[in-house]
Amino acid sequence: MNDQTPVTEAKPVKTLPDAQTVTEVQHYTDRLFRFRVTRPQSLRFRSGEFVMIGLLGDNGKPLLRAYSIASPSWDEELEFYSIKVPDGPLTSRLQHIQAGEQIILRPKPVGTLVLDALLPGRRLWMLATGTGVAPFASLIRDPETYEKYDEVILMHTCREVAELEYGRAIVESLPDDPLIGEFVGDKLKYYPTTTREKSKYMGRITENLRSGKVFEDLDLAPMSAEADRAMICGSMGLNRDLKEILEGWGLEEGANSEPRHYVVEKAFVGDGI
Ligand code: FAD
Ligand code: A2P
Question: What would you report as the CA-atom Rg of the chain, rounded to the nearest whole angstrom?
Fold first, then answer.
């Protein structure tokens, strides 16, 4: 390049202070993938929290979206589990990211799906649809979850079996995990269901709670405000419907500033409900 050459290229991400390097990418379906990135040395977070991540937009400005950290707080890297929205400003590009490339990560974790936002209880229910399983992928790998609860139940519902694979693989790896296996023991109960493809357990989380089928299948007592705590992460429709069910059973919504019986976070915004 000589002095007269105009500089038209966008600033590369790696020159930004918040750049992190992608270390691994795995695709599950044409709608879902996970990726891992380097972790800023100073980043501390509570399992279940989310951060803003993204890429440089065509205008040279960061294009950022909220993402739950799916890895546990003891992991030396960070993992994210992502949707691929065909025309989505971020994910239409993010889905093509490869190891060695860079993303932007704002190291300011926040969120309500944290153990601190719940009163002490005996059982913890994690209720997710789709990519809403991401914060729970972090929490089920956190020893504190098992120190605080006798039983942990993960209900995850997707349309099809292949969409459950990310969560299933993590759950199945836990008993043999050298770091977390002994904390998990037999405390974690997993209840994956599909709604549009045949599988062992079927139906929406809402239906399986209302009908009591999940309690029968897992041989558990029904939920009560005295024993049970819950975390919800899904579409606005799921969150609304589950709140109604849990409140009907006497559970009250909590927050970081006021711990109660259950907490909620949107897995995404904009489904118009
Ligand atoms: P956008 O313009 O952001 O979204 C376009 C449309 O796609 C939305 O209107 C919605 O209808 C649909 N959509 C967006 N995200 C999803 C999704 N995850 N599942 C189903 N439909 C969706 N997304 C993740 O993939 N993984 C996460 O861990 C995650 N954590 C989030 C945490 C919070 C607190 C919030 C608010 C959102 C989170 N999201 C997550 C959604 C994420 O912020 C983006 O919306 C998503 O990455 C799509 O970005 P986009 O720019 O391509 O499309
Ligand atoms: P369904 O197939 O009956 O719509 P999506 O892929 O649209 O984000 O949905 C993910 C999963 O969440 C699907 O299995 C879907 O079931 C389920 N779901 C969608 N809305 C609700 C709701 N309001 N309550 C419970 N489950 C829901």
Answer: 20
